[in-house]
Write a structure and sequence with these properties.
This protein is of the alpha+beta class and 153 residues long. The protein contains five helices and four strands. It binds zinc ion.
Length: 153
């Protein structure tokens, strides 16, 4: 952000506010920008916790259903229904976790360092490891292994 602001002869505060901030409003705008950033970071952490809770509930539900279907005496039709329910729960749980997870934070472009939130479609398609995901940067257009960031610095 700093080199960009220097090139444009504006302050970081102007950039974040989207307008040239008057000296009289400077303090107020700076505080507003800081509050926005803090709120955003808090939201991201909230989504991350929800993702973990959602994932945990899904795993417990699926394991219980499969265990029930495997070890308890029951008619075949009920057993099949339980397995179908387990698969449906797994799909719904993974889907919900993905929706929550994509909202919890940003991905950092390895080339230009831009932070961005990918679309759910790109997110699901992207090959990934625990901390990185293959995504296309919307700023420079390059595709690379983008690092996950929960909070904006
Ligand atoms: Zn980039």
């Amino acid at each position: 952000m700093l080199p960009l602001c220097q090139a444009l002869h504006i302050t970081v505060n102007d950039l974040l506010s989207g307008e040239k901030v008057q000296p009289a409003d400077y303090q107020k705008k700076a505080e507003e920008n800081m509050m926005d950033l803090m709120k955003e970071n808090q939201e991201n952490k909230k989504y991350m916790v929800l993702t973990v809770i959602c994932g945990t509930i899904t795993v417990i539900a699926v394991v219980s259903l499969v265990t029930l279907a495997s070890y308890i005496q029951m008619p075949a039709a009920v057993r099949v229904a339980l397995v179908v329910l387990a698969v449906a729960t797994a799909v719904a749980g993974i889907g919900a976790a993905a929706v929550l997870d994509v909202r919890a934070g940003y991905y950092e472009c390895p080339d230009c360092g831009a932070l961005f939130v990918p679309s759910l479609r790109d997110y699901v398609k992207g090959y990934h490891t625990l901390t990185r995901r293959r995504l296309q940067c919307p700023v420079c257009g390059k595709t690379g292994m983008c690092r996950r960031r929960v909070v904006r610095k």
